[in-house]
Amino acid sequence: MQTFSRILLKLSGEALGEQDAQFSHAKITALAQSLHQAVQSGVQVGVVCGAGNIFRARQANLNVMGRVTADHVGMLATVMNAAVLRDYLRAEGQPSVIFTPREQHPLALPFVRDQALKLLTSGTVLLFAGGTGNPYFTTDSAAALRALEISADGLLKATQVDGVYDRDPHQYPDAQRFDHLTYDEVLARKLRVMDLTAITMCAEGNLAVTVFDVTDPDNLRRVLDGEDVGTRITKEPRA
Predict the structure, then answer these.
(1) Phi, psi of 185 (to 5 degrees)
(2) In which domain, by residue range, is 127 found?
(3) All residues at 6 or more sequence positions from 168 whose CB lies less than 8 Å from its CB, including other chains
(4) How many domains does the chain have?
(5) Is 56 within a domain?
(6) What's the whole-number mean pLDDT along residues 196-223?
(7) What does the CA dihedral 154, 159, 163, 169 come to, rounded to 10 degrees?
């Protein structure tokens, strides 16, 4: 299985919180420690945070709040999550910088690829917030976009389950888990791994996706070490 030298980690907002709290000190600390260890091992790290712990645009009352406004509120929430994670990373001694599609001085820098690549190679964790900067695009699409822009070896999607299933394993005990899928299989089966735009971008860019359970902080290390963790999605079937 592939090992990595540069990754884009897609985090759900729920990875930062608990059911009764938007933020969990224990979870964010463990995550920051795992990311710092990854950098110490020689892996360059970019992160895209979701906002589900704070706000979900699809749950907004769109009769009152239009879709465009809801999406912008969600993008702002990802900046909040990135700011929290940045400071936890710095508390571990790990340099970290937030990039957003548009300037949000002094909290974040506007995304410039050359600057981002220079920081990556210096051992800085890059937190990409604010989505793509446009409504109607999810943070999955933002993750695929940034992963391709920084020439990542792979996109790692950190979730609350141990891979991709044919249906929700929390609701269906007999749900089938996949060890490996192709992009075409994801699209044909209509599996909810990422949105259609994100999957299409990964397929066109031949960017491998690994979906794994982040609730065990050691799983990130195992993925980076090339262990057979989670579900891997590639262009070609597994040999």
Answers:
(1) -65, -40
(2) 6-234
(3) 175
(4) 1
(5) yes
(6) 94
(7) -160
